[in-house]
TrEMBL record:
UniProt keywords, alphabetically: Coiled coil, Membrane, Transmembrane, Transmembrane helix
Organism: Xanthomonas euvesicatoria pv. euvesicatoria
Presence of the UniProt keyword Coiled coil in the record: yes
Protein name stated in the entry: Secreted protein
Coiled-coil region: 37-127
Coiled coil recorded as keyword: yes
Transmembrane segments: 20-38
Highest classification ranks of the organism: Bacteria, Pseudomonadati, Pseudomonadota, Gammaproteobacteria, Lysobacterales
Amino acid sequence: MNAPQPAHRSTAAVVVQSLMWLWLIGLSVLVALGYQAMNDQADQDRLDSRLQRLEAQATGLAEAVEAIQQRPAVATAADLKDTRQILEARAAQVEKSLSGYAAADDLQALRAEVEQIKTRQTAARAARAPSKPAAKSEPPPFPFRIVSAELRAGQRSVSVAPSGGDFTPDQLQVLLPGDAVGPWRLQTVEGSTAVFQAGAQIRRVAIP
């Protein structure tokens, strides 16, 4: 009646050992998964940290562009070129730091942002480019010539005739200060010079 007990004990021992091995294997798997999760979390933390640095650098780029736009108009082309090189260097650093973590879409977005900054800088430089001064308007031509000067009613006056060719006595016109021929008004007679004005234009004409 007692003979089969060793066989039962041997079978029970095998079952217990098998359960222990399964438990150890399961525990090892859990430890490995936990270690991997820790590594993944560390990678995620590093990625988050670099992304935060990217955001800070992008903010710095935006502030640099704003500072460029607020510069006075005396900024030279050399200053703008130096600033653009700084922006490109910063963008290259950001792209290099994220090359192992950021996806292709992220890098493409970064490149697009850098191109946008370049476009803004070009527009700011064009806005600061000095415009060519407007050509001065030529004064209207003299429609007459001074023939002589004389004293009338205690005031100096000048006699004028058409500017070209011969003239007849009835074409002579006597001008006192304040009189005008066309757009030209006689302001005063100073010695041997008559001063005429047409709008903002002033011309001094010698009296023969």
